[in-house]
Amino acid sequence: MASISAPAFPDFPAPAARCGPLRAPRQMLAEQTYGGHKSIHDDQTAGELGLKAGPIEGPTHFSQFDPLLHQVFGQAWFESGCISAHYQTMVIEGERVRAFVQPPSTGAKVARIWAEKQDGTPVLEGSASVGPVADSEHEIPQRIARLRLAKGLVINRDLKVGQRGAQAETVAMDFDQNMGNYYPFTLAAKLAVITEPSPWYTRDGGVNSPWGQAIIPIEMISVLLGSSMDRAALKGRGPAVGLFADQQIRLVRGPLFVGRSYDLQREIVALSESRRTESIWTRTRVLEHGTQTLVAEMILNHAVLKNSYAGYEKEARELGLI
Q1: Which tens digits make up the pLDDT trace of 256-268?
Q2: Which CATH superfamily is 18-318 part of?
Q3: Are strands 169-171 and 81-87 parallel, antiparallel or unpaired?
Q4: Angle formed at CA 52 by CA 21 and CA 61, multiple of 5 degrees
Q5: From 29, 103, 188, 255, which residue has the greatest number of CB atoms within 10 Å?
């Protein structure tokens, strides 16, 4: 009897990947401070940690995906879009980056995304979608599911999975509002240098957006939610320097609007460690102010560098970890 080698179904090729232009994103956090010290985005601090210069904040690159994902998903991208990214390589000002989107295959819901420097060095990888999609289909929940139980924490040893923010947080972002020590710039300043400008983000053009008002760029949702993180008191011992290692922003009833107030609820969903870092994975839920209506959420892996915490080795010995 002859063997049957033909496939059971036709092999449909995946849609061609789309790529955006090379962009040179700007560094906006050189003056960022927290815990009474400068952050990794300060050149001197970065140099002390062995880096060439202060890196650009990861979500800055999200803007480069917006035109591509708007092409793939339409207006829904700004209403129910989800971008889920693992940051791979730091980018410093002057380096050029290109974004790529592999649209979903027929019947699938999730696009693959990645970004590269001009020389091909990977910057980030992840996924994107619109509408109701199971968490398990996205990059960051998949990474959380693979984490091993952290047993040797030093910097974050006082924190617990399930721990919630210490106090209520209400945030807003207006055009000329300085967003504080964590984000010492304004939306207007960002819009002057954003890699992918849109009239929907502006004072004058916002009234002509599909929603009749200016919307907050998706990369700036990270700034909005990060501006009040001190109030949550979900941080480890310090002083210590950290960076964003993984991040997911999901719109549920988007977009978020300039000048509108939102209530935040934070919860630690995982604690982990690597050879060089200890990580706090926090889910921040964004609610319409004064209601319990969920409009967006963010999952953030804030990874603290062990060698930036002066007492790390001494305390690790005291705890019997080394």
Answers
A1: 999 999 999 999 9
A2: Hotdog Thioesterase (3.10.129.10)
A3: unpaired
A4: 30
A5: 255
DSSP 92: B
96-151 pLDDT, tens digit per residue, is: 999 999 999 888 899 999 999 999 999 999 999 999 999 899 999 999 999 988 88
pLDDT at 117: 97
Q: Which tokens in the block code for residue 163? A: 């721990």
At residue 28, what is the residue type?
M
Q: Please give the Cα distance from 235 to 262 (Å, whole number).
A: 22
DSSP β-bridge partners for residue 264: 169, 286
Query: Whose CA is closest to 59, among 226, 186, 197, 202?
Result: 226
Q: Which amino acid is at 73?
A: F
Q: CA–CA separation, 287 vs 292, rounded Å?
A: 6
Distance CA(181)–CA(46), nearest Å, equals: 18
Structure token pair of residue 219: 């990369």
Q: Give the span between the Cα atoms of 288 and 138, in whole angstroms.
A: 25
Phi, psi of 221 (to 5 degrees): -60, -35
Annotated domain spans of the chain: 18-318
Q: How big is the chain, counted in residues? A: 322
Amino acid, single-letter form, for residue 155: I
Rounded CA gap, 37 and 56, in Å? 18
Between CA 51 and CA 300 the distance in angstroms is 22
Q: Is the distance from CB of 285 to CB of 265 less than 8 angstroms?
A: yes
pLDDT score of 1 more than 60 = no
3-class DSSP state for residue 174?
coil
